[in-house]
# Entry
Amino acid sequence: MENSEEVDGMVRFEGPLAGDSGAALVHALGRVTAELHADDMRSFLPGATPNARTEEQRAADAFFVLVKRLDDAITRRA
# Structure
């Protein structure tokens, strides 16, 4: 796996993730992204604070939510 730091502080990881592992990651990210999208849509209901994040922001947020959930699950098992 390769990683590089971009000028603006962003980090990019790139590499293969084969078979079931790749499919599981894509599926999990899709589920979390869908949850965040639903949250964003509910934020436009009366009385709520609108969340106008972009698709790119939502995808990045989904990755961080997924990592946090994994960390919480691992920590509970330890």
Summary: The mean pLDDT is 88. Residues 18-77 form one domain. The chain has one domain: 18-77. The longest strand covers residues 2-5.
